[in-house]
Every structure is written in C-alpha cells, then in structure tokens.
Amino acid sequence: MKETLRRLFLETLEEIALERVMAEKVRFAGSELQVAGETVDLSACRDIFVAAVGKAASPMAAALVAGLPAERTSGAIVSSAPTGASPPGFKTFTGGHPYPNAQSRAAADFILERLAALGERDLVIYLLSGGGSAVCEAPIDAGITLAEMRAFYETLVTCGAGIVDMNVLRKHLSRIKGGRLAAAAHPARQLTLYVSDVPPERPSTVASGPTMPDESDAALACATARRLGIVDRFPRRIRELFEQGNLPETPKPGDAVFAASSWRCLLDNTAALDVVEAKARAEGWLLERDLSVDDRPLEEAADTLIRRLRALAERNPGRTVAVTTGGELSSPVTGGGQGGRNQAFVLCAARKLAALRFPAAVISAGTDGIDGNSPAAGALADRATPARAAALGLDLGDYQRRSDSFRFFERLGDALITGPTGNNVRDVRMLVVSGAR
Q1: Which of 19, 161, 192, 381 falls 20 to 30 Å from 127 in CA-CA distance?
Q2: Are 295 and 349 in contact (CB under 8 A)?
Q3: What is the pTM (predicted TM-score) of this model?
C-alpha cells in the first residue's frame, strides 16, 4: 500500500505541474491575453512589467513571457531556487526561504522602484505562489535590519501558528505585503495570477497578499501576536512596534488603489486533491474527503482522520477505502532535528495505525517537495512501521520529541524525496485501509 500511495502522489505532481497548468489556462489570441475568463488587450498597454514571486515563479514566468511583446516587457523573477535562463529584460533574485535573505530585500526594493515609475497606460502582471512571503521582503520600518526580520520569521515559522495567522503578522510588518505593491503600482492596470497555498476562502494570504485588499488590520495583528504568546520573542525594534500598536495600516477592500486590479486563481489545493482522488478511484478505492482538520494540531488531526478511516472500513468490509485531506497542520518545533509537519504527522499517525485491526497505510507530503528543514517532501508509513523501527533500535517517541522525523523515515527508507517541484498548493494526505483482510 505504501508504494501505491507513493506512485499516486508522484503522478499527481506530474499532472499539476505549472508548465501544464499555464499552457491550459493562459492563452494568447492576437494582441489579447486570455486567462481564467479575463481578457487583456496588450496593444493598449504602453509598458508591461511582470513580477513573478514565489516557488513557482520561474515556470510561471517562462510560460507567460513567451506570449508577451518582448520589446515592451520587463520584469523580475524572485524565487528560492530560480530555474532556467532569465528572459530578456528580466532580473532574477534568489530570495531566502523560509527566512528572508539579502536577495529578498533587494528584490522587494527593485520591484517597488519599478512599480513607482508606472502610469495608467502601463500593465503589471503579478505571478504569485507559495513561499512568496520570505523570498521577497522589505520591512515597513527602514530601521529594522535583515537579521531582525529573519528572527521575526523564525519565530513565526517555529511557533506552530497557522498560515493565516502568520500572514496577518507579516502583512503589517512589510513594505510590500497586504496590498502595498498594488498601492505602489497605482494607477497602472494590474492583473494577479496566483497559485494558492492557502485556504480557498483566504486568497489574500497567498504570499501575504501583496496585491490584494487586506481584510485584517493592525489591531488584529497585535492581538494575534499576543494570543500566540510570541511578542517577547521578537527582536526589540519589532517588539516595540507590536507593544505600542505603531504598525501602519494596510489598504482595505474598496480602496481606490485597487480600482484597476483583478485577480485569478490558476491552481489550488482542491485541484490537487481532485487529481489524487481520481487516481485512487481508478484503483477501485472508495474515498471520503475530510477538510475539517485544516490548521489543527497534528495529533488531533490524526485522531480525527483515523476515526473516520476506521468507520469507513467497518461500513465497507472487503473494500479498499481511503480518507483524503489537504491544507496544513499545526506542528510546533520542539527539538533541533530535521523534519516538517508532513513527516511529523506520518510519525504520529503510524503509532495510531498500529492499533487498528485493519492493514492500513498513510502518506503526507508537500506539493512543493519541501517539508520543513528537511530534504524530503513528506513520508509514508503503515501499521508495521513502529515494529520495524523498534527492530532497528529506533525510539519513535524520541524522534517525535526531537522534531527529527526525517531521520526516522530516512532510516526506514520511507522518506518521500522528490526535490523542489517549482509548485506549491499546500499538502496532500491520504490514509488507506486495504481490502485484503
């Protein structure tokens, strides 16, 4: 079952590859750009600036720029691992992820400078994807250093906060997030094409929403930091901004800076789940999807999903049944090991699967190919995993406490390593019970 799960996930990655998605959804007809139900007349645009930001920046930019008029197009490609040669007129930056680096700041400064020079006859096309928050960043206060901004990000990433909470905080400490890029480009025509790594009802959190109206406010950002109990962990300059409530406000829905803006989603987590589920049904499996665990603690999520899996198996004896879910889970870092939320979830679930009377297996992996600080996308396990680990002298609980799930699964040969995919539509998880009794 583990190898079947591995195959289904890898086939899903191929089907949702950005090159394929861009070719399907972005079309050119004469001088018109047609994408997701929107048409832009390129002949009416004086200059075109493309800002591609995030893990999928390179493939998205390559697919789009091929159809744009080269003599009027320039831009920036900002990613943690840019691939391929830069198109003429483009500048490439290798930003940091999950923490910003010097190139992250240089990219933000470059884009802001270019946007400030645009007028109402110009067009900006933003290509946003997961990871954009860190790879392109400039603090709202010029006195905040790169080291302080990095420490701020480290606190957010390791405290167990969900993506929405993290991005509420990032938006209010950034010079480009929370709609501030749109404000910088106003009054130019602005089109945002994005690949979503956030809950579907919160598109303005993709890359911390640099081009979209911000539904949150500075008061919520301060309250969120207090609720998470992390204000005292911020560097002094940043801590004072939150303690004193001195965070500048972001542009809100209805603001005039968005008058010439539109946004289109090209790919999201639902699309990835649809693909993997279709492949599982082709294997003859009976499936149920459970999205109720999104952003919940991984132990709680594992209990919920396994209860549902057991009930599904008991109602359908002799059938191979599976429960799928997506999104992300809360997984605070408690040690200095290597791993991430996907491998931590599989480690937790493996112990619980061992108690089932059914032959069961589990996979959890990130569609970006990167899980936490490890080289793996995720991991696989089955009911026999704890016994196999014990035979090798591996203490499952000890690896959990040290946040060292990657080394645990590496020893067992069950780490799922794909390398960076250049994509990011959150995580995919599947728990399955075999029909073979």
Answers
A1: 161
A2: no
A3: 0.86
Residue 219 maps to which CATH number?
Answer: 3.40.50.10180
* Structural domain range at position 297: 270-433
In this predicted model, what pLDDT tens digit does every residue of 76-89 receive, in sequence order? Answer: 999 998 888 889 99
pLDDT at 212: 96
Say if 383 falls within a structural domain: yes
Which segments of 95-146 are extended strands (E)? 123-128
Task: Assess whether pLDDT exceeds 70 at residue 245.
Answer: yes
- Of 129, 131, 138, which Cα lies nearest the Cα of 176? 138
What's the token pair of residue 99?
Answer: 């923490």
Q: Tell me the C-alpha distance between 43 and 41, whole Å.
A: 6
- pLDDT tens string 324-377: 999 999 898 889 999 999 999 999 999 999 988 889 999 999 999 999 999 999
395 residue type, one letter? D
Question: What separation in angstroms does the CA of 421 have from each of 18, 19, 83, 194?
Answer: 9, 11, 11, 16
CA distances from 10 to 5, 13, 158 (A): 9, 5, 28
Burial of 43 (0-12, 13-18, 19+ CB in 10 A): exposed
123-128 sheet: strands from edge to edge: 90-94, 73-79, 48-53, 123-128, 189-195, 261-267
User: Residue 206: its pLDDT value, please?
Assistant: 86
Q: 3-state SS of the chain: helix, strand, coil percent to 5? A: 40, 20, 40
3-class DSSP state for residue 361?
Answer: strand
Which of 251, 267, 283 represents a domain boundary (last residue)?
267
Q: Are 389 and 404 within 8 A, CB to CB?
A: no
What order of strands is seen across the sheet that includes strand 32-35? Answer: 26-29, 32-35, 38-41
For the chain, counts of helices (H) and of strands (E):
16, 15
Residue 437: is its pLDDT beyond 70? Answer: no
Same structural domain, 213 and 330 = no
